[in-house]
Specification:
Blueprint (H helix, E strand, L loop, with lengths): L7 H16 L18 E7 L3 H17 L3 E7 L4 H12 L6 E5 H4 L8 E2 L3 H6 L9 H6 L1 E2 L2 E2 L2 E2 L1 E10 H6 L15 H13 L8 E2 L5 H14 L16 H16 L9 H6 L4 E5 L3 H6 L4 E5 L9 E4 L1 E6 L6 H16 L2 H4 L4 E2 L2 H4 L2 H4 L4 H4 L6 E2 L12 H15 L4 H17 L17
Parallel strand pairs: 1-2, 1-3, 9-10, 12-15
Antiparallel strand pairs: 3-13, 4-13, 5-6, 7-13, 8-10, 8-11, 8-12, 8-14
Length: about 450
């Protein structure tokens, strides 16, 4: 449920993706040829999980690559987002039927048995095509390194954001001189903002959308605010749970208060209410094309630092090399060349709301002119990530286990303090469990660089 299925939202996103991609000189058409393209002497098979606006923007970049590299035929295939994609990718790698290039969420790489189901990148070959470690956020690059080898090439970070309606906040006196939402640094300040915004909200609309019934979003919000409090998960060796139930309870009570104080309507259509005039919604940055396509007067910031420290939940799409017993040769070099090209030419990708991982892109005039992307680009420097263990990552076991219990607290079916204790118990069980990919626990998963 983290990414809704094809709907009016996705159609809006697709339309916006086409429009913005075109503005960067890309033509968002074509999906790859079944036969080797005329004049091409190398084929690169590429699997991804991008649909909607993301899919249109990726196609635009692939077509631009094809035009500049006629000797490489890219055969791209889009598979179903989430666990079906990861299952098929794992089976293909285990059966030596893997594509030359794939995409994964960076948080899932550790659990994908690097060295068995994934092959490491040739950093020298990447450098040949212009991609170097120095061009990436250090923490983001570090997450892609396992046992001293680079197993993922980050394409972006995608974050949870606080979207706000400027027209409504203006009436409530909640915009600064720069036209952006006033700064918030505590829970008291945040609920004071909601109180003022509620008075300016049309009857029948909630003040803020929180995806109260969605296990993925509730988990992502929890990770963000727990990180703001300085909360940790495990010790460095992944042998001991360091989860702080007192801090967890603070976060759970904070999320719950949005419902008890009447600012959030459980089960309300979050994005649709925002389009119709609700002053706030917390959504992933992939909603930017939807809201821009609806021509709203809006802004977007990282989740408010209500516990003092800035931190907003972040994941990353990253290129990977699914394991091939005979990896090498022209197809492998073509995969490196394609991934390097897309990473360095991610301006169209940024139109989908994602923050490009290639930091030189962030300083280009084209990116600086993108709104509201230029308002939340700072999230790159204060990412709240899930722990680097085999059971973490987008739609992973950790979110599936803990997301529903966070929902139970937010919606009021369980007490926050009891939920915090349950979360610690689940973390203890997961830490002792074995990765079905390779039969190793988190502590046995290798030394992380």
């Amino acid at each position: 449920m983290g990414r809704p299925g094809l709907s009016r939202r996705h159609l809006l996103a697709g339309t916006a993706g086409l429009t913005v991609a075109g503005s960067f000189g890309f033509a968002a058409v074509g999906t790859g040829a079944d036969a080797l393209a005329s004049g091409a002497d190398t084929r690169v098979r590429y699997w991804n999980l991008f649909s909607g606006g993301d899919g249109y923007n990726m196609i635009a970049m692939l077509d631009a690559f094809r035009k500049e590299n006629p000797g490489i035929d890219v055969k791209d295939s889009t598979l179903q987002w989430g666990n079906p994609f990861y299952t098929k990718l794992a089976m293909a790698a285990a059966g030596n039927r893997a594509p030359d290039l794939g995409v994964m969420h960076l948080g899932r790489v550790t659990g994908f048995s690097p060295g068995r189901l994934l092959d490491p990148w040739d950093v020298g070959l990447l450098a040949k095509y212009g991609v170097r470690e120095a061009d990436f956020n250090p923490e983001l690059w570090k997450r892609a390194v396992i046992d001293g080898k680079l197993y993922a090439l980050p394409l972006d970070i995608h974050v949870q954001l606080c979207f706000y309606r400027k027209d409504v906040l203006g009436k409530a006196g909640l915009l600064g001189d720069d036209g952006r939402m006033v700064q918030v640094t505590s829970t008291n300040e945040w609920f004071d903002v909601l109180k003022k915004a509620k008075k300016a909200t049309k009857r029948g609309l909630q003040t803020i959308g929180l995806w109260t019934n969605d296990q993925n979003f509730q988990w992502w919000f929890f990770v963000a605010f727990y990180t703001q409090l300085g909360g940790t998960w495990f010790n460095a060796a992944n042998t001991e749970v360091t989860f702080d139930t007192d801090k967890a309870t603070q976060v759970l009570e904070f999320l719950r208060q949005h419902v008890t104080d009447g600012y959030t309507i459980p089960g309300a259509p979050t994005g649709e209410q925002f389009v119709n005039g609700a002053p706030f919604t917390w959504e992933g940055n992939w909603s930017v094309p939807v809201f821009s396509g609806a021509k709203l007067d809006y802004g977007a910031t990282p989740l408010p630092p209500v516990f003092g420290e800035q931190a907003t939940h972040a994941e990353s799409h990253a290129f990977v090399l699914p394991h091939q017993a005979d990896r090498g040769g022209p197809a492998n070099e073509g995969a490196h060349r394609l991934a390097a090209y897309v990473v360095q030419n991610a301006r169209a990708w940024a139109a989908g709301g994602h923050i490009p991982a290639h930091t030189p892109t962030l300083t280009t005039p084209e990116y600086r002119e993108l709104a509201p992307q230029n308002e939340y680009v700072s999230a790159m420097d204060h990412q709240a990530n899930e722990p680097k263990v085999w059971f973490a990552g987008s739609t992973g076991v950790l979110a599936q286990d803990l997301g529903p219990v966070v929902v139970s607290s937010t919606t009021g079916s369980a007490r926050p303090a009891a939920v915090a204790q349950r979360m610690k118990a689940r973390l203890t069980a997961l830490l002792a469990s074995k990765n079905p990919m390779d039969g190793r626990t988190a502590a046995q998963g290798g030394t992380v660089a």
